[in-house]
């Protein structure tokens, strides 16, 4: 196997295999299909990167298609924001398309399905239909309206379109199989009545197609070769295929290519909410200032916070393309922006918590303009001049009256180097009536060749300009803010996610433009915010120079271990089964028997939809595959029907080299 082949991700392997099997390269076509019901967030960047990245790799077109099927939640504002964000990330789409462009064609195909006896109008309440749906282990039951005549169904559907019925009185359902083990195949709804103004079609329609019906057929109309989506859509693949294969009979002469749906693990990030519904709540409840608040995980929020397109693309590259769900530590994203800005951001000096220093042996009327390097990481960045005078500000935390030998900043009797300037020695302090230090009196030494351990940033008081500095931190204090089913995610909000300070900056920053990024030396990376005016500069903190949360993690984990043991019992059964399977092959026979019994007991709380994604577990993870096989046996005993995915999983297991896995598969 060549190095190039080894480096391919599993989606690229699928595409290469399709090309080898006769798919013409010019037939490759991809799409990114957002729903315009909110702003794009960091989780979407993975899907964006995969589809547009494949377009770049294979020189294939990528459509930007808005799946705008729910007018009650969609707005033109979201469409505009999505286009702006994708372009900012540096991607170009071939065509800007909308599912609403296909409403006429979708309706035409729905009518044809009715005529062919593959769709019918159901007039039950949503509650009645839900009750008839069954469960993952119990088959559903047919609607009393399932056998309506073709003529009656056509009449009702046309009258639904004409607006003759109130919302909720009728729906159009596909006629598939109410006993299918995949609940999505149990006569899914294709159309519902909805009297809502659509941001593009206005009031032309009062019936709107459901997502599963619209999405796949839009792919088919656009002749998408590979429909790539996140892992939660894997159970939908069977329905996706049913719809496209039936419609193919009506359009194969002019739409010959059937799209192939394949799924990848979505991007989950610690300390972050990825639900657009929950992000909208933060906006509506004014917890944040808007979708582009720099604390939000939206692309707009990250851009305003100072993130660069390159840092986000590098983050997606590091995350990679996987088949299994996992949670990426947000510190990786922060690492990527630090790495990027370290190379590109000019260094400047700013003081955010000032303490006045008077250099008593420096002439009162003297000032100097000293040379300072802009960026030691960039030879082309050059130098600038910064003013120095008798009175300067340093950070309050950089001085102590008394300190240990390990304190390498300024202390009484001690010396430090001022960045780009002189060495100073603290001699005495001035305090207010409450005993707080208001000034430190120092002397300076022009011999800068002396060795001193500490170096401080500073600004000249008489030259300093002021700016509003917004210090942002993580919005949530919990690693998984929506992972606790007994608590509302809002309970984990970080009360200190925003601190507003007055900063004292070197005067050259008066010319800084909106969007310019700088490193405030020893403090972090900052960007000029769009709220800035000619009279008032506003800076947002992008990220600190190092991970300030890393020190807190061990403590948080210790608390979890001591306080959260009861919660561990509430982990999803499928998660516990995966954990038990990891070391299964290492256990002695007696322990394996005990663990197998435990897995069998847990299996009663596992839904087939949760188990099927684990059929693709890597071959080398034999223990996990054995645990999945044991669980599958229990589900089959409890009424889950065999399907192609189950049969394929069992067949592969029977051919495996692991004798334990073969033995379990032989019993199915």
Structure, explained:
- It is found in: Cytoplasm.
- Its EC number is 6.1.1.18.
- This is Glutamine--tRNA ligase.
- This protein has 668 residues and is of the alpha/beta class.
- It is built from 21 helices and 29 strands.
- The chain has a seven-stranded mixed sheet with strand order 12-27-28-29-25-26-13, with helices on one face. A seven-stranded mixed sheet has the order 23-20-21-22-14-17-24, with no helix packed on it.
- The protein is elongated.
- The two termini are 35 Å apart.
List the helices and strands and how they pair.
Elements (H helix, E strand, L loop, with lengths): L2 H4 L3 H11 L9 E3 L9 H17 L3 E5 L9 H13 L7 E3 L4 H13 L3 E4 L3 H7 L17 H12 L9 E4 L14 E5 L13 E3 L1 H11 L4 E5 L6 H15 L8 E5 L3 E2 L6 H9 L14 H7 L3 H11 L7 E2 L1 H15 L1 E3 L1 E2 L2 E6 L7 E7 L9 E7 L1 E5 L3 E2 L9 E2 L3 E4 L4 E9 L5 E9 L9 E2 L2 E2 L4 E8 L25 E8 L11 E4 L3 E5 L8 E7 L9 H11 L1 H4 L4 H10 L6 H14 L5 H4 L10 H16 L6 H11 L4 H8 L2
Parallel strand pairs: 1-2, 2-3, 8-9, 10-11, 12-27, 14-22, 18-19, 20-23, 25-29
Antiparallel strand pairs: 4-5, 5-6, 6-7, 13-26, 14-17, 15-16, 17-24, 20-21, 21-22, 25-26, 27-28, 28-29
Short description:
33% of the residues lie in helices and 20% in strands. A hairpin with a 4-residue loop joins strand 20 (415-418) and strand 21 (423-431).
